[in-house]
Amino acid sequence: MLKLHKWAYVKFSTQAMIMVELIEVGLATISKAAMIKGMSNFVFVVYYNALGTAILLPCFVGHRLRSNRLPITFPLLSRLFLLGLIGLCLSQMCAFAGISYTSPTLAAAMGNLIPVFTFSLAVILRMEKLDLRNISSQAKSLGTIIAISGALIATLYKGPPLLMAQTSSDSPHLLFSQQSKWLIGCLLLTVTFLLLSIWNILQAATTKEYPDEVTIVFFYSLFGTIQSSFLSFILERTTSAWKLHNRIEIIAIVYGAVSVTVLRAGIITWCLRERGPVFVAMFKPFGIAIAIFMGFVFLRDTLYLGSVIGAAAIVAGFYGVIWGQAKDKENAITKLESPSCEKTPLLQSKQRI
């Protein structure tokens, strides 16, 4: 009975993380479809986050009224303001601009750069030690190099098409324009995941100092919405761009607000608490397969050789970094347990004397 319960628990958490990947790739796909129809990526970021913040508002108010929570101080609000700027305003604007120039498949592949960038920043900031004599450090270093190489391949080498959903009779000038947009899109996606890596480090530190996830998520979303609105009004001055012209734009906004802001956040929070960050990260490459299928079926995207080679290298590097982090945790647990095992006989021998 215990084995069955444990199996059901693992099955549920696995299905939950697969749902998260479906939600994330779904957002990239549906937003690309809306942008193909003419929706501005700046307008999408503002509307989708504003609706998500409005949904979170009653949850936040009820959460604060139900129990006595930690006080909200000005230093905390300042840090949440910075989290909103990095993790929501700037990163999402770069992300959706990058997706509009490339494809959801490439965005899903390059998303595996987050743990690679996070590890690199942790080493630079001396939050993590790098000992190349240790096999875990070797795995993380090699994984970082391989993943970054994969990102460069996907950016600089498009290659011939492997899956072609639509025929093209583009002129050489138009093909050159598409290559330029592809390069810009890849660079924007790289900046996106670098910003999210910085955000991960800041968020981890904030959560430790202020363990109230509902308050953090609400104010982070609120500040991010205000910041993205201010920046979008400067970058997108055309009045017609702020009007919703077709059904796909409304569907994309509602989907992003409900599925991503509310549902995805709840699932990831639960899985992080119950299974840990390594388990959550292991499902990231699964999004590539989902993105290839959805992009080919719904967006008629073309799959290029450079994207496949780059994605394979990024995934291989991703697993190298994750394996190294898991090995470090295993070694730390072993070191903590071994002294206690050695001390017990000594204590017993003293009592006998």
Automatic annotation (TrEMBL):
GO molecular function: transmembrane transporter activity
Keyword Transmembrane helix set for record: yes
Residues that span the membrane, as ranges: 12-30, 42-60, 80-101, 107-127, 139-157, 182-202, 214-235, 250-272, 279-298, 304-323
GO cellular component labels: membrane
UniProt domain EamA: residue ranges: 26-154
Keywords: Membrane, Transmembrane, Transmembrane helix
Annotated family: Belongs to the drug/metabolite transporter (DMT) superfamily. Plant drug/metabolite exporter (P-DME) (TC 2.A.7.4) family.
Record carries keyword Isomerase: no
Membrane topology recorded in Swiss-Prot or TrEMBL: Multi-pass membrane protein
Intracellular or extracellular location(s): Membrane
Protein name: WAT1-related protein
Main subcellular location: membrane
PANTHER family listed in its UniProt record: WAT1-RELATED PROTEIN
